[in-house]
Amino acid sequence: MKSNIKDLDSQELEDWLGARREAPYRVKQIQKWLFQKGAGSFAEMTNLSSGLRADLEREYSIGRLKTLQRSCSRDGTIKFLFELADAVSIESVLIPEAKRLTLCVSTQAGCGFGCAFCATALMGLKRNLSASEIVEQILEVRRSLPADMRITHAVLMGMGEPLANYRQTVKAVRIMSDADWGIGISPRRITLSTVGLVPQIKKLIAETHVNLAISLHATTDEIRSQLMPVNRKYPLAELMDCCRSLPLPKRRRITFEYVMLQGINHSAEDARRLSGLLNGIRAKINLIPFNPHPGSSYRRPGPEELLQFQNALRSLGHQVNVREARGDDIQAACGQLLGAVSSETASSEQSGMEVASHSSLLTAHS
Ligand code: SAH
């Protein structure tokens, strides 16, 4: 099988072109075709010589994802189920908000971290995605949008643990964020969420400018290790020390995600302990009411308990947001992604139709 040209970084592409005595400026020309104009074939690349196009065609594929299903939620969220070349499937979720259009992207098929409350964990890890498979989720969703709609934000919060697929994820982030030849989503509008892999967090902050979100979810090692086995490797003290010492850009904050599990992690002591853990860290807290899924017996706390926890944290001086469940009627909310064709969707189609047909839903939110 030919390799996917979108997996080459600028240097690799320049080397390949150099071996054919092609000038280095060809690199950007090709990248603009791939990432800005969304070319589906080398034949479209009309500013390249026909000889070069033929060489590219012989050596590389452009490799697109196949859209197996698109499910539309009552709230305007759209879940895309994609099939990769080896028939593995992944999901991306498009979330329209007042002034944003956010795409939630997967970095692995399945996940190997085994968080007790997460649906994706039940699949186990199937495999890492390549940079091109990560980026192609954005390109494919973009192709289905009406011309006047742009994806403004990207979150690496879909299936998988992005920092366990470090090299491909960072390569994909470079393509997403480059304004000159790439997709052009500013790194300030890209957020990567992690279970808390300490060495890779340090590396990420040194090598990129994306926003960091940490899945915290508990305030003691005992509970966190029950919920997130990774805590045995990187316990709370080490994780929080790492966060405290990160050289963050000015005015940046780290987001701490906290899934609210009924009766497990939202007591008054939890609020106090959480506040203590965040001491000395520029932080904001994102409370995520647990999204139920078949295969889990956890429940979300009631609205009053949620408010109580939120207020306790606010009165301790913290910035707290509650993440609304988006797309939970189509199993598209945090922790509900399973990579399977579903039938119980609010409005579902086996590809073919344009998202434009749902633009009333989308424009209502944009
Ligand atoms: N592996 C990364 C990326 C996943 S992001 C990480 O763990 O951060 C998805 C976010 O949703 C994470 O904070 C995850 O812990 C949370 N989540 C998982 N299952 C959930 C569920 N059922 N309800 C609410 N949030 C959930």
Structure description:
This protein has 366 residues and is α/β, with parallel strands linked by helices. It has eleven helices and 15 strands. It has helices at residues 10-19, 25-36, 50-59, 131-143, 166-177, 198-207, 221-227, 236-245, 268-277, 303-315, 359-365, and strands at 3-4, 60-61, 66-72, 78-83, 89-96, 101-104, 108-110, 125-128, 153-156, 190-194, 211-215, 254-260, 283-289, 320-322, 347-349. An eleven-stranded mixed β-sheet has the order 14-13-12-11-10-9-6-5-4-3-15. Helix 1 (10-19) crosses helix 2 and helix 9 packs across helix 10 (303-315). The radius of gyration is 21 Å and the shape is globular. The structure holds S-adenosyl-L-homocysteine. The site of S-adenosyl-L-homocysteine has 17 residues, from strand 10 and strand 12.
Features:
366 residues; alpha/beta; DNA polymerase, domain 1; TIM Barrel; eleven-stranded mixed beta sheet; two-stranded parallel ribbon; disordered C terminus; binds S-adenosyl-L-homocysteine
**Global morphology:** globular
By CATH, the superfamily of the largest domain comes out as Aldolase class I
Helix run count: 11
Overall average pLDDT: 93
Strand order of the largest sheet: 14-13-12-11-10-9-6-5-4-3-15
How many domains make up the coordinates? 2
Low-pLDDT stretches are 351-366
Given this structure, which CATH class of the largest domain is correct? Answer: Alpha Beta
Ions, cofactors and other bound molecules: S-adenosyl-L-homocysteine
Structure summary, number of beta strands = 15
Gross CATH architecture of the largest domain: Alpha-Beta Barrel
For the sheet with most strands, the description reads: 11 strands, mixed
* SSE sequence, one letter per element: EHHHEEEEEEEHEHEHEHHEHEHEEH
Computed Rg: 21 Å
Oligomerization state: single chain
